[in-house]
Amino acid sequence: MKALVYHGPGKKAWEEKPKPEIKDPTDAIVKIFKTTICGTDLHILKGDVPAVTDGRIIGHEGVGIIEEVGKGVTSFKKGDHVLISCITSCGKCEYCKKQMYSQCENGGWILGHLIDGTQAEYVRIPHADNSLYPIPKGADEEALVMLSDILPTGLECGVLNGKVKPGDTIAIVGAGPIGLAALLTAQFFTPSEIIMIDLDDNRLKVARTFGATQAINSEKENPVEKIMSLTKGKGVDVAIEAVGLPATFELCQKIVGIGGHIPNIGVHGKSVDLFLDKLWSRNITITTRLVDTVTTPMLLKTVQSGKIDPKKLITHRFKLDQIMDAYDTFENAGKKKTLKVIMTNENE
Amino acid sequence: MKALVYHGPGKKAWEEKPKPEIKDPTDAIVKIFKTTICGTDLHILKGDVPAVTDGRIIGHEGVGIIEEVGKGVTSFKKGDHVLISCITSCGKCEYCKKQMYSQCENGGWILGHLIDGTQAEYVRIPHADNSLYPIPKGADEEALVMLSDILPTGLECGVLNGKVKPGDTIAIVGAGPIGLAALLTAQFFTPSEIIMIDLDDNRLKVARTFGATQAINSEKENPVEKIMSLTKGKGVDVAIEAVGLPATFELCQKIVGIGGHIPNIGVHGKSVDLFLDKLWSRNITITTRLVDTVTTPMLLKTVQSGKIDPKKLITHRFKLDQIMDAYDTFENAGKKKTLKVIMTNENE
Amino acid sequence: MKALVYHGPGKKAWEEKPKPEIKDPTDAIVKIFKTTICGTDLHILKGDVPAVTDGRIIGHEGVGIIEEVGKGVTSFKKGDHVLISCITSCGKCEYCKKQMYSQCENGGWILGHLIDGTQAEYVRIPHADNSLYPIPKGADEEALVMLSDILPTGLECGVLNGKVKPGDTIAIVGAGPIGLAALLTAQFFTPSEIIMIDLDDNRLKVARTFGATQAINSEKENPVEKIMSLTKGKGVDVAIEAVGLPATFELCQKIVGIGGHIPNIGVHGKSVDLFLDKLWSRNITITTRLVDTVTTPMLLKTVQSGKIDPKKLITHRFKLDQIMDAYDTFENAGKKKTLKVIMTNENE
Amino acid sequence: MKALVYHGPGKKAWEEKPKPEIKDPTDAIVKIFKTTICGTDLHILKGDVPAVTDGRIIGHEGVGIIEEVGKGVTSFKKGDHVLISCITSCGKCEYCKKQMYSQCENGGWILGHLIDGTQAEYVRIPHADNSLYPIPKGADEEALVMLSDILPTGLECGVLNGKVKPGDTIAIVGAGPIGLAALLTAQFFTPSEIIMIDLDDNRLKVARTFGATQAINSEKENPVEKIMSLTKGKGVDVAIEAVGLPATFELCQKIVGIGGHIPNIGVHGKSVDLFLDKLWSRNITITTRLVDTVTTPMLLKTVQSGKIDPKKLITHRFKLDQIMDAYDTFENAGKKKTLKVIMTNENE
Prior knowledge:
Four copies of one chain form a homotetramer. Chain A is of the alpha/beta class. Helices cover 27% and strands 24% of the residues of chain A. In chain A, strands 3, 4, 5, 6, 7, 15 and 16 form a seven-stranded mixed β-sheet that branches. A six-stranded parallel β-sheet of chain A has the order 10-9-8-11-12-14, sandwiched between helices. In chain A, strand 9 (193-198), helix 7 and strand 10 (214-217) form a beta-alpha-beta unit.
């Protein structure tokens, strides 16, 4: 089969690899139907994630069709259409029992990281019963690719950890795909105001069409002053960090109001300054989280009932064997106005 | 009347001041029966709290007897024995309605800070109906002085914000009065292990008699190594910061386990390093809080029913007019093995 | 002034009464601008609420303008536009401190019940600081009349107590004004399916335009069978009781799924059968509640930001002195397709 | 092997049965070391649980040693000491993923009910990885038998569902083993007062030694009057139903205070009267639950750290082949002052 393989910093290839096989009785082999590219994949390709070694097939998102299941798999059978979770969970370790699948002792984020991933014609999914979700008949499978990672990440790490409530004023720092996923899912809880902050006017424009009530280009306006003015000096109820840089985390600290929440989504490469001298007495909550994908069943219901439309995030479409072009489009997101790209495997 | 008055950094005097009078209809005048000294009072006297100006009577803890009430006070009358909360709350602003009394728009921490305080023969308490608590007949009033500030602070900022649960392994960094208050109140929720960390062997010894299951002198042992060994490399469920220094907050980050909580109690004078590069994916919650004293009614019940004995925290007793000696004893806590001091007004 | 006065079962009159005066320093006198009629008022007029005595002015909803405030009122002044809460709260008793205003020891539901109410040209509001809410400049005051009682009731007793979540399937038994208020506010939390059950086809039709995804006329269809079929035999996540009869409460028990919630809103006149033999092992939660109106500030924000449109509930409008006609319209709701009526005081 | 076999209403025998074998790869065979008898077993033997058929080995509690595991079992191996949960959970169905193991689509309460149980020399445990718990080295295994069912039942259905908090006044209706388990585990949360109600003076005496602060024999005293007097007319914060009769559930409704909780533990054979005419406006929460045994890991920690001593519940000890005597002792609990009996398998 063909797969997108990492060959050390800066090197990737769409090349022939052996088709994966069942190794453990709880495995399933899934034929990929649609997959996408995540910002994390770009980090991997740059060499920022040393655990990923030469020869690894990357990718951790996608939908597909069950090709084969191990003897221990009871919920799925050949031919089933499935959504692949970016998080593999065994369902029986201490963390899985607390619904903290991201920290699964026998899984977690391993796809396209510690084991071969989804940017391929086939993928082996360990602990299939707990790591795949059945796709309802008639569902729009392209939309569901957004449920592998980006939508549960925005929802769990940003919106749920931030305890967004009806009537809240929230800010989302970063209008990339993950910030936009937070924007879409925040509306499950009907905040009154959603202020989007980014450097890219196109993304801010998109954010407005997705439901943002305010958009601030932080190169053109001082976001702290603007937000304090919009909130009569009170600051926001929730400041979602969706970038992963010291400056953006610091901005969240400057705009959060008394009793507010700073849920961190961003992947951080260094430590940041925490202004405890200012915040110690302000009843603030800061959270971190790797997506647990515990909300996948709920997201499936909201997509099926039309309460959320994740397809809005998809800007470009490719055939799976055009994946090198897809990467180019995703890497040049600013110029090409890319949010998420979809690659479809058209082989029968 | 006599009162302890701040006269600029390093200067205090026990001197004559006018007896306070009712200014607003919701005020009460309380004759102080017993009061104590808080670590914050030492900060004020050093000049660390610029909002406190020359001439201010300090102190924000105590019990006493109602001397007079304004016309708007309906819950108390002359002669009632009352517990004074360190937090004044109006009961009608946005924050009071959310039970965040510390942030009251018409109160908050003002006693011995922005208005005259309790280290005096009499004190004026604004918004008396919401800022005083009736002392049940027969209660041990000395014990209740610990409910003005230190016990609700340990409980709310440390234990409740840390979501301490039965079976948890928790660490408390700092075995001063506030850390010990967290230790006492943590036991409301039956953690399995309570690890106390300090530099003072006497305080650690006290902590053991108060219920700590482990005590680590962090000058003699490496606390991170010790805790990782005690927890089989998992770290603690809750790491309570009860000091207020960058090093102790950093220690909390190093010992907290996956999914854990770092509730900050310490008053911080500078920003601290937040290790987001390590913690971003570990499902951690960090909280800050100024005590709201919303738990005072609950604490009163637990004291009355003998479930907690706050008198354990009291090591030295003085007459109110020996307050300069009391300060000396409190300032030299290490040498004199002081935890909390009590000063009693014996004038009729 | 003119007022709607109860004169024993079946007797009411729009008659002259003395204008109310300040009695306590925390009182305000409000000139009524707009008011409405509640189902409870009809019960009172029938004689079902014995605490209401001959001569009482009824009504507990409305908006108006402050005419005068007592000396203890600090948040309002003459000329302020205010929303009147149906619940009077002192802000300082045990229950108010737990945000359970409905149970206030010095208030609760007293307007138009134990003291004179809002169906008059003027009303005295005790504990004004905690029982009135400022109306933002430019707000649609007619819409806000729905926030006195009906919207917080649907939200607090039905939606919040029922813990409605994104993706849930919920049923609302009763499509009267209160059931419709639950329908509107349930959508704050994005349930996937909202099944409305009633006997009145017009109300079911209205429910569909308000967001119901299914409507069942329980005279024409078996609601249990229909719901079991819609939910593949699982039952609903939340079954909101919005009628107050044994039969409707029993229906909720029959349609609720494992782990589900039955939040009761209905005012019940007799005890009901609880099927513990069937439910004891099904992890069910049943709640009761008198509206606390703690969500009023949040509702004000959602109305101001256009997230909810309470005016949809208003079907008929009258001048205040046409109140006898308004009652007639409200009492003949089926024939006249009435939901809520608004009476406006046009006297300057 | 020998086993206790049900042979229709009123008939049981300790007789030879085939030793169980692995049927599914996720099964384990456990050699029983210690087991006990549950009130439910008596119901089964009377014929009250029609799903239990002639020939069934009953019993759903115990500790033992792994004899053999299926190929899909990864957490246990031959020779491991294990605690058997009364609830079998697959770890992958909709309910298991919500931690509602009692409702597991592939398990739930099946041991000694739908499949052969633990009152035998060997038992087959399906879904062993999720249904067994490793026993820590050196643990008191007799004590842990109480963790198979009775302690998590008292804790989850009674204490956690009742949201017992520090300072609360709680009542437990029924001082049988399950009520006493609620009494022991309620103390994890430090209520101020625990009022125990029963008809048996011995059990009430035991309750006092277990931590009850009040004991009411409801044949000798009017429990409603007594509790109203003890609580100054307010009623209790939590009224735990631990009997399963209409009269005891009604008693809970009469003693619960405003805002209170009625968590039902009792197994009910008929419907009960719910006094909605009185309770509709009192902000009450009623819950039902079949134990999910999600608290087993936490209970193991609290037992290991000495925070709770479940052995207190054991009054009589037998060899496993004396099980008919053990039943006699358990059935005549009043006369013999029996709480829980333990049967030990002494065969090597």
